Amino acid sequence: MSTSKSSARSTYTTHSTHGRVYNGMPALDLGEQGWESPWSGPNGGQCVQTKQLSDGRVAVRQSTDPAGPALIYTPQEMAAFVAGVKRGLADHLAAG
Description:
Blueprint: E1 3-6, E2 11-14, E3 21-22, E4 25-26, E5 36-40, E6 47-52, E7 58-62, E8 69-73, H1 75-86
Antiparallel strand pairs: 1-2, 2-3, 4-8, 5-6, 6-7, 7-8
């Protein structure tokens, strides 16, 4: 699979059935199948959803806005984020 990255916008081009995959793209363009809600808020239905892309990257969207933007992260970026959360570095983001 060939990929190229434009540093100006973190735009990735991939050869896949989805075509161009880029940060901030409409989540619907990634399809409705494969989205998971690994965690959600206490109000129900307000979930952060993730989707593993065919090239290994991870798309993230808000379940209350499935047509909204998808943020695209590399496996390394997601691993660093999860490691930081486990160490308590994101505790300030928790409501309440």
